[in-house]
Amino acid sequence: MDATDRVSPAGAGTAGTAGAAGTAGAQPVDADPAGAVPAEDVPAEAVPVGAGRRGRVMGLALACHPGPALAVTALGCALALGSGLGGPRSALVTAAVLTGQLSVGWCNDAYDARRDADAGRRGKPAADGTVEARAVWAAAAIALALCVPLSLVCGALAGAVHLAAVAAAWLYNLRLKATALSWLPYVAGFGALPAAVALSLPGGPWPRWWTVTAGALLGFAAHLADTLPDIAADRAAGIRGLPHRLGARGTRLLLPAPLLGATAVLAFGPPGPPDAGGAAALVLAGAVALAGPALGRRWRKAALAGAVAVAAVDLALLLARGVAGS
Question: Which whole number is the average pLDDT over 112-124?
Fold first, then answer.
């Protein structure tokens, strides 16, 4: 688990190398850019003490793709608390999800730094020099190192499922983003989240099939919605993931299908006839799923906002039905 802030599958990138990313836009140490003021001519009081360090810390915070990272972490926390894990174990699950998301976001920005610099993309700290790409790579490695024990302490199988989702997200960043399989890490990551939460429960009960299926469909929708506003720019950069191959129109037409599918699975998947809550959720999700892409020409993030709204409806439906059981 873009969007300059990409929703992470568990988050995105394909061009450039770590070394190249670290040197994007660098000048020789002894270069004297035109119009530059010699350092000795700058009054000491003009440069606040610690300003550079604060800038780097802020750049590192922004490079992790904080929006998607916090959204997926909040989803994992809500699932953990709603499933009855209890405070301490829910905190462990939340910490595992958060560190995984941080590692994916930092990996994305570090790997894409050179390409983002060449494209002149704004809001990319590793590309604009706010923070060095190698520092972002180091943060990604530390977060990943923390994610491994935090995941496994939730249970061997639960940890393995979550770590597989994080690995898929890293694979998206490093390879799959520019291929026709760009959707696969999103499907794996979002489908693994309810599975990992269920397996973290005492006794490790198997997750309910409809929760995993709904999560996977939401992941597919998230990929489409997240990429839609940037299809033209990504194509210019040589990225040819599934949404880029479909084009903006094809992606916009396809997007409502997985959104409605996820809600339908949650409404009709559990045994017995669907209740009024499921029917209402399906109607609401249908309206939002269709409105988001339709409003995309007026607001570039409308499709993504619609997908998030449907995900919120589905989360409420999922929590009402539970994540584990038969």
Answer: 82
